[in-house]
Specification:
With 292 residues, the protein is mostly helical. The protein has two domains: 202 residues, Cation efflux protein transmembrane domain (Alpha-lytic protease prodomain-like, Up-down Bundle); 77 residues, Alpha-Beta Plaits (2-Layer Sandwich). Helices cover 69% and strands 11% of the residues. The chain is built from eight helices and three strands, in the order αααααααββαβ. The protein has a three-stranded mixed sheet with strand order 1-2-3, with helices on one face. Helix 8 links the parallel strand 2 and strand 3. The longest helix has 31 residues. It is elongated.
Length: 292
């Protein structure tokens, strides 16, 4: 429950912060007639959308399992993170295209102290949101929080580098704007692509990583009664996994004894590996080599 409450706070703070910046950029941009700030104003709509997706995705993912969704609604995190990644990729295209268009039109950089003040406020707000979401993500790993964190970080760099390129432009280095813009755009694309791929893998039921799988097998090896293991499967359920596998035990054990081994394994795995949501073990009898 704490995980969902913290994610909810991240999304609400993100929505409030992005709306305030949206209004500030809009007022300053249209008053100063700065095309760069007006473009940044429209880009803030994407930030508000990302925070809203975090809020909705978190609200849906915390719902308990029901008759129509037997494994719960955990994958909602990845559905909405997928949407956020699409926004990032589209933003990267817009940034690169805008930088090239500005250079081709030979537009001079607009700079004023009002724009500088707006940029500083943007950096402070976004930096604060970045460090906050990063700290929450360390305590409660969540792809929605991770996506929001990277979005805030990207905005910090975009605004900082835009100010730097504007100052360089005033001093005659007009090419700095296109170079910085392309670098930022490519970086945002890379960040968005990583979130896109992680979300896609989970939505396509990609199996758990080898390190987590090895931890499961280490627990199984503690039980000498288990003679063989096969049919290992892992299905993502939100940020965790449901696993199932078959164990083979001595055929001379009673049904109760063999199932107690499975029950013990299930308890140990779910207690020691937080990434495991549910463990289902099928038990098969097996004849030992020294048995007649």
């Amino acid at each position: 429950m704490e995980r969902y409450q913290e994610t909810n706070k991240v999304s609400i703070y993100g929505i409030i912060g992005n709306i305030l910046l949206l209004l500030l950029k809009g007022i300053v941009g249209f008053l100063s007639n700065s095309q760069a700030m007006i473009a940044d104003f429209f880009n803030s709509f994407g930030d508000v959308f990302s925070s809203l997706m975090t809020f909705i995705g978190n609200k849906i993912s915390k719902k308990e399992a029901d008759e129509d969704h037997n494994l719960g609604h955990g994958k909602a995190e990845y559905v909405y993170a997928f949407l956020i990644s699409i926004i990032m990729i589209l933003t990267s295209y817009s940034v690169v295209k805008g930088s090239i268009d500005t250079y081709l039109r030979k537009e001079k950089i607009t700079f004023s102290y009002l724009l500088l003040g707006t940029a500083i406020v943007t950096i402070i707000v976004k930096l604060s949101l970045y460090f906050y979401t990063k700290s929450v993500n360390k305590k409660h790993p969540n792809i929605l929080i991770e996506a929001s964190c990277k979005d805030h970080r990207n905005d910090c760099f975009i605004t900082t580098l835009t100010v730097v390129s504007s100052i360089l432009g005033i001093n005659g280095f007009y090419e700095a704007d296109i170079i910085v813009g392309i670098i930022i755009g490519l970086w945002i694309f890379y960040t968005g692509w990583k979130i896109f791929k992680e979300s896609y893998d989970v939505l396509m039921d990609k199996s758990m990583n080898e390190d987590t799988k090895d931890k499961v097998y280490e627990i199984i090896r503690r039980h000498q009664e288990v003679l063989k293991v096969n049919h290992f499967n892992a299905t993502p359920v939100g940020y965790r996994y449901q696993i199932s596998f078959t164990i083979f035990v001595d055929g001379l054990l009673t049904t109760f004894e063999s199932h107690e081994i499975a029950n013990s394994l299930e308890r140990e795995i779910e207690k020691e590996i937080p990434d495991i949501y549910l463990t289902v073990i099928h038990v098969n009898p097996m004849k030992r080599e020294n048995q007649e």
